[in-house]
Amino acid sequence: MMPTADVERKSAHGSSGASPLVTSFSDDWGSDISTFKGVRWGKAMMWVFLLSDTFIFTCFLVGYMAVRMSTVEPWPNPSEVFALQAFGISVPLLLIAIMTFILISSSGTMAMAVNMGYRRRKEAATYLILVTALLGAMFVGMQVFEWSKLILDEGVRPWSNPFGAPQFGAVFFMVTGFHGLHVSAGVVYLLTIAFRIRRGKYDESNFEIVEITGLYWHFVDLVWVFIFALFYLW
Amino acid sequence: MTDQPSRQHPIRIYLIVWGLLFLVSALSYMTDFIDRGLWRWALILLFMALKAGFIVAVFMHMRWERLALMAVVLAPPVLLLVLVGLMAVESDYTRSVRFEYFVEGERDEALPVSAGNKRN
Amino acid sequence: MTEIEAPYQETMDVPHPRSWITRYWFSQDHKVIAVQYGVTAIAVGLVALVLSGLMRIQIGFPGLLPFITPDIYYQAVTMHGMIMVIFLLTAFLLGAFGNFCIPLMLGARDMVFPFVNMLSYHVYLLSVVVLMASYFVPGGPTGAGWTLYPPQAILPGTPGVDWGIVAMLLSLIIFVVAFTMGGLNYVTTILQARTRGMTLMRMPLTVWGILMATVLGLLAFPALFVSAVMMLLDKLVGTSFFMPAIVSFGQPLEYSGGSPLLFQHLFWFFGHPEVYIVALPAFGVVSELISVHSRKNIFGYRMMVWALVAIGALSFVVWAHHMYVAGMHPYFGFFFATTTLIIAVPTAIKVYNWVLTLWKANIKLTVPMLFALAFILTFVVGGLSGLFLGNVIIDVPLSDTYFVVAHFHMVMGVAPILVIFGGIYHWYPKLTGRMLNNALGQLHFWVTFLGTYAIYYPMHYLGFIGVPRRYYANGVESDFYPASAVTLNEFITVAALVVGLMQFVFVYNLIVSYFRGKQAGPNPWDATTLEWQTPQTPPDHGNWGGTLPTVHRWAYDYSVPGEEQDFVPQNVEPRS
């Protein structure tokens, strides 16, 4: 089997009777130059990086699952550990709910920024990215507040806590720590991109950079969805 | 590049999904008030999957990407499910062994304790 | 949709360095980065080689070198293993071969992000420095074995428990960062930056092997990263991820509730794909060497590609065959033994295809070809012993004996190293424009090949009779330790020292041939792949001059009936 002829330039809609989705799938993998048509290098690279990062967070959460399931000591109840006093009553997970609200808001502003970028509305895109960064910074600030409350007021340590299994603190600090690091890095990244857009660095392009940045930011929100569900609610 | 997926969707779709995310998050939060058991866990996982799906499909644009990219990103995490499943079985086994050899008394569910209770 | 997509690299702006620092130290040219990776990997590999010499002297002639205490011995065991697997094999096969071969074989000017590529090397260098620093910290390097199993790895009694283990874990974390940067570049370049006419199924198998290995690495190294972070936290902060309630030297420690098995699962979830990260590029390079040096197309190219993909995917579900005797869930053995035996199938298919390629071929016994043939032999031997170990019941008496040591050295330490040598002899002329000295090459090959056989083939016997691995007090005859084992240890040590010395002859060849080697010309092996069709040798910055090549055929048009020469390069147009 020695194909010596040139690659035929197949159209995206294919020539066989199969559905366009399947045809485009095999066309993509069989074509020359690039596999993901219309996807610039930066975007492909970001997706692969996010895939790798998914594995990292999954391994962290698997570690969490393993220690929680294998310990003989009772696991603390997150609803109560993370409750806040508001108007005299203890509201479970109040701070966490607010943090979720903020992060989802930031995802929304980011999605709009991407849309503005593709419409070449630089001012709007920059403004929305800055709002996203601000919301991200607020999220980190609240996470820092949560940490300080647990460490200083409640006596939670990585090696023990007054509520239950000692791994609770270890898992909490490790998982939220890595997530918080990602959010912080994301804030820096967002600010960098915002200033570069303002300076006109991307004027020659179609502002795909905003979408690439948005992928990272949405990933950070995605990880929070899992942490919120599996650590705080479960 | 006419076969490039269209990037300029009306803003509406993002606003709708944004709203849905708030809604599902509120619903997730409500599960906190259900007693621990199968219902609670099923709902937690369901809402988690819904939110994750919305974010990946719409915000991260996956719904409009070519199947090739979709497959490359969505297929490998299936391997993670193998790891998760096996580790769940392993951890449960570890716990059983601990109760059998190291702990006095019966094996309970790992019921959470209220804040403020000391460790027994 | 009629517009023909142009390779973006046509208009790509390759960075043009001006000073020595930007040209060599902070180079963004993939060829220079490849050499940087190669030189660093070989340097640190020589350190590991010396360590293995020390280990063998202790095993074969205990007491001969009195400074080899048990601590020193276990530190050597650990550092030798970790350096060889991660910092030599992975770094060379992916960092050096990957960086050099990928853009050239795909008709690209460079990797898609040369700056990130440059960073990946320097972060790798940093990880090597941090690892070597463990020799200078109080207590020295860790002696926990390359597998770093808790709880012993962070408890007193194990060498390096204060600082050495921290340096080791930090070094691994930094390496994962370097690997991720490099790996993203490779995957993106291979998938998105090929030249016109280069479809995935026209890529040389070297690129396929490296692609699969990179994907494996991007997905598997996270597990190592997480294990290292969690163990660091256990050590430095006192968490109990892996540490159960435990008494150490009579003192109950503060830990409780953790599980050492969790570390083993996470580590091997990385560790097994890791050995395929080493093996798959080796498979790819071997296919290249065999095809070129026997003037015949690789038999069953399509199956070779699918076999690489299948091995890669399956490698994620076999990990606990390293844990049959660890005390995990009793039924896991069934699952993992099954998947382990299944993964032998695509691997065997590849071996059959190599042999069928050689069948009735015009074999030229050049030095690269000799190494490729030796790879097939040693990999088959190592693979066969793996079949024994893959079955749970047989593994019970063989686990943690020299049988395992023989197995993994054959498949990891002998076979891929032979491929690295073969690849260097093969591509050195393209990199430098000169041939490596042939006589020295033949000497290097025969001593290395026969010598490593002499080391590891008899070692299986030691395993059968139950000689345990990682024992300091070997080689002392007792009721437990028969005279045959003592004699065999002495023999193996002598062979190992001879083989070890011969590698310095190879290094000498590398250096001297650069200045005095025979001029090679652009394509001394008459190969078809694109890297041999560059306008200059060694290739200039940007690789292709003004125009990128266009590919018209697959990578293996050798001995095509009706053609004048016995090879047709990939960029030659089809006869109409």
Report what the structure shows:
The complex is a heterotrimer of chains A (234), B (120) and C (576). Chain A is mainly α and 234 residues long. Chain A is 68% helix and 3% strand. In chain A, a hairpin with a 2-residue loop joins strand 1 (84-86) and strand 2. In chain A, helix 2 (41-70) packs antiparallel against helix 6 and helix 4 (94-118) packs antiparallel against helix 5 (122-153). Chain A is globular. The termini of chain A are far apart. Residues 1-15 of chain A have low confidence and may be disordered. With 120 residues, chain B is an all-alpha fold. Chain B has two domains: 1-65; 66-103. Chain B starts with 10 loop residues before the first helix and ends in a 19-residue tail after the last helix. The relative contact order of chain B is 0.08. Helix content of chain C is 61%, strand content 1%. Chain C has helices at 20-25, 30-60, 70-106, 114-133, 164-192, 205-236, 260-294, 301-314, 332-358, 367-390, 392-398, 402-432, 438-456, 459-464, 483-516; strands spanning 247-248, 251-252. Chain C has a two-stranded antiparallel ribbon with strand order 1-2. Chain C is globular. Chains in contact: A-B, A-C, B-C.
Task: Please outline the helices and strands.
The complex is a heterotrimer of chains A (234), B (120) and C (576).
Chain A lengths: L19 H11 L10 H30 L7 H4 L2 E3 L2 E3 L2 H25 L3 H32 L13 H32 L9 H26 L1
Antiparallel strand pairs in A: 1-2
Helix pairs in contact in A: 2-6, 2-7, 4-5, 4-7, 5-6, 6-7
Chain B lengths: L10 H20 L7 H22 L7 H8 L2 H25 L19
Helix pairs in contact in B: 1-2
Chain C lengths: L19 H6 L4 H31 L9 H37 L7 H20 L30 H29 L12 H32 L10 E2 L2 E2 L7 H35 L6 H14 L17 H27 L8 H24 L1 H7 L3 H31 L5 H19 L2 H6 L18 H34 L60
Antiparallel strand pairs in C: 1-2
Helix pairs in contact in C: 2-3, 2-4, 2-15, 3-5, 3-6, 3-7, 3-12, 4-5, 5-6, 6-7, 6-8, 7-9, 7-10, 7-12, 8-9, 9-10, 10-12, 10-13, 12-13, 13-15
